[in-house]
Amino acid sequence: MTSAEISSPSETTSTLWTAITRTVVVPVLAVFTALIINAVIIRISGGDPILAYLGLWEGAFGSPKAISETLVWSTPYIYAGLAVALAFKGGLFNIGAEGQLSLGALVSAWIGFALPKLLGTSLPWSVHLPLALFGGIFAGALWGAIPGWLKARTGGHEVINTIMMNYIAVLITSFLLNGVLKDPNPFNVVARTPSIAESARLTPLIEGFRVHWGTVLALVIAFAVWWFLWKTTLGFEIRTVGANPDAAKYAGINVSRIIVLTMSLAGGLAGLAGTIEVIALNFRQELGFSIGYGFDAIAIALLGRSHPFGVVLAAILFGAMRSGATRMQFLTQIPVDIISVVQALILLLVAAEEIIRFIYRIKAPKETVVLTRGWGG
Amino acid sequence: MAAHTSTASNRLRSILRVADLGRFGMIILLIVVLMGVAALVGAKENRVEVILASFLATLFAVATPLTLGALSGIYCERAGVVNIAIEGLMLGAAFFGFLASIYLKQAGLSDQASLWLGVAAAVLTGALFALLHAVLSITFKVDQIISGTVINILAIGITGYLNRQLFFQGQVPHAPGVLPVIHIPFLADLPVFGKIFQQQPVAVAAVLLVAITHFVLFYTPWGLHTRAVGEHPKAADTVGINVERVRYANVLIGGMIAGLGGAYFTLESVPSFEPLMTNGRGFISLAAMIFGNWSPFGAWAATLLFGAAQALQINLQFYSTSIPASLDFLNKSQIVGMIPYILTMFALTGIVGRTIPPAADGQAYEK
After folding, report:
1. Confidence check on the interface: ipTM exceeds 0.90, yes or no
2. How confident is the model at residue A4 (pLDDT cuts 50, 70, 90)?
3. Helix (H) or strand (E) holding B25
4. Claim: this prediction has a pTM higher than 0.90
5. How many Cβ contacts (< 8 angstroms) between chains A and B?
6. For an interface test with A, which of B146, B284, B331, B346 has the most A Cβ atoms less than 10 Å from its Cβ?
């Protein structure tokens, strides 16, 4: 998993062990500890934690259908987690995945249902699907580029700007889905678009299950992000700006350009998360379909140590919890919202890994990563 | 040499003062423009002075959580701790303050007593969440923005879970209503405009706290220590100021003020709790703090501008029938609702005068 980081063959086993401790042990212990604390919370609020976790496991991995649902849930998490992780690598904190995602979904849904009508002709699959896909990516990228540009040009902090753009995206979506893009079907009372054309849809991976090709694509994209960040010049420049913008500037890297690029790529990845939900799963955009993907994505990126492969594992964990939660609620009447508490606890313990190090007496040196910067720039 | 430096710094100071005057001028101008739009739209149905008075009354009320959020941020950041957790602090305080008030009422306390103890619970909740932020960012030296985000997500998770667990099944106790209106003597009796001075206690407290914070920060030893720790912790340490203790205390004070801001939502504005009801106010108040250059009165002016944007939205909804067809977009709550968020982004660009954060803002102190 971390072959790039443990590349030198001359490394001794002890440094290898340190590297493994750094990347894997702390997150795993964080998840474990969070589940224990959460069990206490469930117990205090009057539930049975063991029954709850058994239900969670059964709902997530208990049957082929459950596994399919887990993968369906994990898919947007992988894309959105990558969107946050990539920005972290460039020293930027992208809290805006939520907004980028919903605008990506909106644009791809519009291309999916409206473009054939607009052109007055049906489009072939080979044209329509890529159009919807890239339209969604482009919308997300644009929504990411704006705070990137503001950061590079004016120093306006991306944390607040991406959050503001989330709210603006929600209002735009609500405005359009209640207005011009609303499904005109007389039986429809919901703020949602009509179904997208067959020619803009991704097919299911296995007949009879909801898991779709978007999941496979997510894994490919995760690999591509890793390759891009660690094997290309541009990726190196992004990581350099993330590690030390001053050094990057002296090395002749155009920092402003890299900031805008990083935020655009991050936005594009988040836009892809929304697009895939539209073209492979829901086949339309509906108001409020993504409450919280963007915030979960932050936890996923941190848990995955901003490494694409770590993000995939963390996304599957979060997807499993989301998909298992319904079964858990059915068995134990514990609200699915408890999952948000577990996720927050995991995030807390990963972010403050000193706590984990303190509890489990881990001595290995801490990996210092610059995640974001103060208001100054 | 010394004389030269002092004239240079005097000149710098006067330039800054002019820039700030420009900032205040622009804020007032924008508020007047927003009021003008409200007056124009409502003119057919009501007298202009009545509309303006109710606009201002709404403005001061809705600016309350923003003002308190900005003051919370000022205490933290003047001591060098970035606090983007204000949103989560307010959400958590709104929930637990409300929770305390309804269960105290159920336990047999009067409505008034339950409400005031609810406010106390909200303030306490703010302090507890802030304590977590302090432990993470000061003691454990976690990246302060990450720590703040963790608290925001934790607050959303806990309030969402408990809200459903407690209020979605069985008998839900009744809420004790909202805090009573305070009539400010003399001013509240003015004709028409007296309405502006009939406000609820948290709103009044917010305005008082602006003045108190200004006094504390700039005219007391405590304020001097706080600013020293935020600007140059090493120097402060050298002269015997306990950097960690000053930072802890200020983050806790900030947490309590944000907690009071949370009380506004469920004990003063409406007698109920909804998940995510703070709706970005915590982040907007941070922008107001930056726009106000980390000064209490500057930040207050900025929050009034955001309040005006929100008051306009409320006004437009009220007079929606008299909006002419050519200005139909004003009828769309989503479009007008974007104004505060766009204003926030605009404020952050620094187009209107440059803002300067405390020099050690966001940096953990390493001895």
Report:
1. no
2. very low
3. helix B2-42
4. no
5. 142
6. B146
